[in-house]
Structure formats: C-alpha cells, structure tokens
C-alpha cells in the first residue's frame, strides 16, 4: 500500500512539474532550459508503463503534447539542446499513442526536420537518437516504414560526423534505411561518406560549429552569393572559382558549400537519385586538399566505415531486393567504379565490393547483360581511359562470356556484344606494336601498360571464344578473330597461345562446350549435353566425365575413381 502511495506521490509531483513548465512564462520560449523537465518526462513514462493505467496516461498526454510543440517553436532561439527532451516525449507518443489516439508520424518527421537536422553533430543527441531508433525498430518497420528511408541522408550525416564510436548502433538501424524508394540513391550516399565528411568539415570551417545550426539555412544564406557569382561569370567572363586578388581563399569561402555536388551531399531528405557533378572544380579542389594534407581522424574513420556499410548494403541487395532494382543499380555501379574518394586502400576495398555486387547481379539474372548492353558497350569503349576503367572492362568481358551475352534468348544482344569485343580486340592488336616497342626500352610505366593490356586481351579472347561456343552462329567470326591473334606474335605470348588453344578446342565441339560453355542458371535446372555440373560430382559415374579429363590416367576406365579427377579437400 505504501509503495502504491509513493508511486502516486511521485506521479503527482512530476505531473505538477510538467504542468508548471508548460505554463511558466520563463519556459514558454525554451522549455528545454528547465533541467528537471527531462527527468519528469522519463519518470512519468516509466510510471505509466508500470501502472498500465489509461487514466494516468490521459492526464500526462496533454502536457507533453504542449511541451513538444513549444520545444519545436523555440529551437531556432534555444541555447540548450532539445534533442533528449523531444526523444523522451516521442517515446511516450510511441508507447501510448493507441491509448490517447495520437498519430506520432507528424511528430517524428518534425523531429528529424527541425531538431536532428540542427543537433546531429551533438554526440549525446546522436547516440540517444540511434538508441531510440533501435529500441523502436519493430514499431518503425510496421507503423512508419517510409520514415527512415526518407531521412537516410540525415542519418548518414550523423554517422559521418560522429564516427566509429556509434557505428555498431548505426549498423543495427541501417536495414531500416532501405526501401524501394531509397535503395538506389542510398548507394552513392554510402560510397561518398568520406566526401560527406570533407563537406561537413568545410561547412564547420567556414560557418562555425555544426551543433545548433541547420546546414540547410547555411546553404540558403550562401545562395545570394552564388547568384552574384553566376551573374559575374555571365557578364565578365570570370569563373566562380577564379577570385580576384582581394578574394578570400576557397577554403574560407562559402561558395564551395553552394556547389551543386555539396548541396546534394548535405541534404537531409531523400529526394531521389540525383546526378553528382564530379567534374566540379570546387569538388576537385576540396578532395585534392583533403588528400594532400593530413587527414582528420573523422575522415579516416569514414574511410574505414564505408566498406563495412557497403557489405551490409550488398547483403541486403542480394537477399531482399527485386530484380528490377538490381538491374537499375548495375549501371550506377559501373558509373561510380572509377569515381571514388582517391585514397589507395579505400579505392581497393570499395572497388572490390562494387565488382562483387555487379557480378552477383549478373549471376542472379544473366539477362541483365542483354538488357544493359548499351552501358556495357560504353564501358568497354573506355577500357584504356584509366587503370580502374581497364579493370572494370576486364570484369565485364568475363561476365559477357560467362553468361553467354545474356542467354540463348538474346541472340541480337549477344551479336552486338560480340562485335564490341571484336573492336576492342582489333584496337588492342594494332596498338600492341607500339606498346611492345615502348616496353622494350625498359620504361616501368610502359611495362605496366603492356601487362594491363595483355591481361585485358586474355579476357577478351576468352569472352569471344565463350560467346561463340554458346551462340554457334558466331563461330566463323570467332575463328577469324582468334586466328588473327594466334598469328600475331607481336602481342604477349600468353595471349596468342590462349587464342591458339581455343582454336584447337573449337575443333572438338563437345569438349569445347564442356570447357567454355556458360553455366546454366540453377533455377532453370537445364544443362547442356557434354557439360559436367561439378557440384554433383559425387553422384556421377566415370562414364559421365569427358574422356579428355582422364587422359593422364592409366589403366582401363573401370579402374578409375572419381577422386582421381576430383581429389578431396
């Protein structure tokens, strides 16, 4: 009885405190300035939760609703953080909204737009926000499924600024960021996390602390300067980045923050997939400055976190996302492969994951290769623009050959892809004479280029042979192409020897199909005659294996064991 009386005394005390704060003129403009208010809100939530009394909940609700609205209206003038208080009130709305018939969706959206956009850089508020989202994960997925996908750019700013200490909590929230509408724009936002850090640090350097000020307002304040600069460019011919003798340096100017690329990076809400202007002088200058000087600890953490977040994105994409979105993602993967933050280890880790995701998409649905013929052909045409584009073209060649140019139903696309491979092959053969002479002079760069060219040519030759094996009508053209390579002793020996070997295989169709024939989709359950599904090797008799595999064995066929061909691990 005494315990019950104590509880109700506590309830009355905290309710009076709440009512006083809601009425007191001292706190009307800034309720969060009352240090006892947060404790009262949390205590009342706990009491309502433990007592399960609708009467108590109904008495508390009007005061909390009033304080919530007053907090929001006073954020721009507030000298104290409102985040923790608003999160505590939001928790009450989520827990007891059904009892008081309150829809928390508008309150949640207003919190993200008005409060978190100003306080994401506050480590206490950032941690409390992630804890709040994790505690209510099921509620968000069932009742507010579009909320987190809408505000994923803001949450990425939160983790970019606060770093690895909040990564574990953010990773638990991360799956909730992905929806039909956010899947595609989320990918460039993840891989641009280091550049987001550069942009945020640039805003902090030019405009002061990020805590308590909305970046959106900073962007708006720089818009008139941007307009004047554009007018100056139109009438005088000077560019935005020129600056006269009296102008400030670019690092201290707000002009770079108004660059379209940075405006896209610094947004709070998902407004779809937008083009990111990598050619912008301001972006190039900012990235070059970040790379050439000592990197901040925050940037180093972003470089480490990005591959791990990309791993989560890839796992969800392969497991849960439909084919149409994966197909739409592949051109974006190809476009961004060579447009990344230029840090060596970061490039290696992210590019490796981009290729894995792209090839997983092709493996899941080989028809993507035919559907995306145009962007694939474009990338093959850029094979020698840079080492990263060479590697991308090499992987695309492998995918084209491995999956038969999209499959048997896409003969026209396969023919066009074959022609692109032919063109790439002939261009390389004509240039290999020059490369060979350069490498003979001992230049390291020339030797590196020759090695890269030879590697690509090996993949092109293999892709041509595989395509012709799958689409028999291409065999005559493939023989002509491979014969030219085999007779060309000016290229790397590995290339012309491989072409010669493939020509020999083509004289034995069944063997050629077994070696070069593309793997069939497991879902179709179809297998070409003459091929072996090695995953079923344990159930096969020796007679099912092509004879050439047993060429090195001795004795009659019935003496052979499968272990002679497929040794155990």
Q: Which oligomeric form is depicted?
A: single chain
Indicate the mean pLDDT: 81
Helix-strand category = mainly alpha
Q: How can the largest sheet be summarized?
A: none
- Inertia-based shape: elongated
**What is the N-to-C order of secondary-structure elements (H for helix, E for strand)?**
HHHHHHHHHHHHHHHHHHHHHHHHHHHH
Separate helix tally: 28
What portion of residues belong to β-strands?
Answer: under 5%
Q: Runs with pLDDT <50, length 5+?
A: 222-256, 521-527, 541-545, 547-553, 555-560
Estimated helix fraction: 55-70%
**Radius of gyration using CA atoms only:** 31 Å
Count of extended strands: 0
Q: Termini distance?
A: 71 Å
Could you characterize what this model shows?
It holds the Pfam family SPG48. This is AP-5 complex subunit zeta-1. Residues 291-520 form the AP-5 complex subunit zeta-1 C-terminal TPR domain. The chain is an all-alpha fold and 569 residues long. 68% of the residues lie in helices and 0% in strands. The chain contains 28 helices and no strands.
């Amino acid at each position: 009885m005494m315990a019950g009386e104590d509880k109700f005394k506590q309830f009355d005390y905290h309710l009076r405190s709440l009512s006083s704060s809601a009425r007191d003129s001292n706190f009307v403009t800034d309720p969060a300035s009352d240090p006892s208010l947060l404790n009262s809100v949390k205590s009342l939530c706990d009491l309502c939760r433990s007592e399960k009394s609708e009467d108590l909940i109904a008495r508390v609700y009007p005061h909390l609703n009033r304080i919530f609205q007053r907090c929001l209206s006073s954020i721009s003038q507030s000298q104290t953080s409102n985040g923790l208080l608003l999160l505590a009130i939001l928790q009450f709305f989520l827990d007891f909204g059904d009892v008081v018939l309150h829809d928390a969706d508008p309150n949640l959206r207003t919190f993200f737009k008005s409060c978190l956009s100003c306080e994401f850089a506050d480590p206490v508020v950032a941690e409390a926000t992630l804890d709040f989202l994790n505690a209510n994960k099921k509620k968000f997925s069932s009742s507010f499924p579009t909320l987190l996908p809408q505000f994923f750019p803001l949450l990425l700013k939160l983790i970019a600024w606060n770093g690895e200490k909040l990564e574990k909590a953010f990773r638990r929230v991360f799956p909730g960021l992905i929806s039909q509408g956010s899947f595609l724009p989320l990918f460039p936002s993840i891989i641009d996390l280091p550049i987001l850090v550069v942009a945020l640090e640039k805003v902090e350097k030019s405009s002061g602390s990020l805590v308590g000020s909305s970046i959106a307002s900073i962007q708006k304040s720089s818009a008139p300067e941007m307009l004047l600069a554009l007018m100056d460019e139109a009438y005088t011919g000077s560019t935005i980045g020129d600056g006269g003798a009296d102008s400030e340096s670019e690092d201290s100017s707000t002009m770079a923050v108004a660059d379209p690329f940075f405006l896209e990076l610094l947004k709070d809400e998902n407004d779809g997939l937008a083009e990111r202007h990598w050619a912008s002088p301001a972006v190039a200058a900012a990235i070059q400055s970040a790379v050439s000087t000592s990197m901040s600890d925050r940037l180093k953490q972003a470089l480490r976190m990005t591959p791990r977040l990309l791993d989560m994105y890839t796992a969800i994409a392969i497991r849960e996302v439909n084919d149409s979105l994966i197909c739409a993602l592949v051109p974006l993967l190809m476009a961004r492969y060579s447009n990344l933050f230029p840090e060596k280890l970061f490039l290696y880790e992210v590019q490796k994951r981009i290729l894995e995701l792209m090839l997983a998409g092709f493996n899941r649905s080989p028809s993507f290769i035919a559907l995306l013929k145009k962007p694939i052909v474009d990338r093959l045409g850029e094979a020698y623009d840079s080492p990263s584009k060479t590697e991308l073209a090499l992987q695309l060649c492998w995918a084209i050959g491995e999956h038969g140019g999209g499959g048997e139903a896409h003969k026209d696309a396969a023919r066009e892809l074959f022609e692109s491979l032919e063109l790439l092959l002939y261009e390389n053969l004509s240039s290999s004479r020059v490369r060979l002479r350069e490498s003979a002079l001992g230049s390291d760069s020339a030797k590196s280029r020759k090695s890269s060219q030879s590697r690509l040519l090996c993949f092109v030759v293999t892709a041509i042979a595989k395509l012709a094996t799958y689409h028999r009508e291409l065999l005559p053209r493939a023989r002509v192409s491979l014969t030219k390579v085999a007779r060309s002793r000016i290229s790397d020996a590995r290339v012309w020897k491989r072409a010669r070997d493939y020509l020999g295989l083509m004289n034995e169709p069944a063997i050629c199909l077994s070696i070069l024939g593309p793997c069939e989709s497991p879902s179709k359950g179809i297998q070409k005659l003459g091929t072996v599904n090695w995953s079923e090797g344990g159930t096969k008799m020796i007679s099912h294996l092509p004879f050439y595999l047993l060429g090195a064995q001795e004795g009659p066929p019935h003496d052979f064991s499968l272990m002679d061909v497929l040794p155990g691990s």
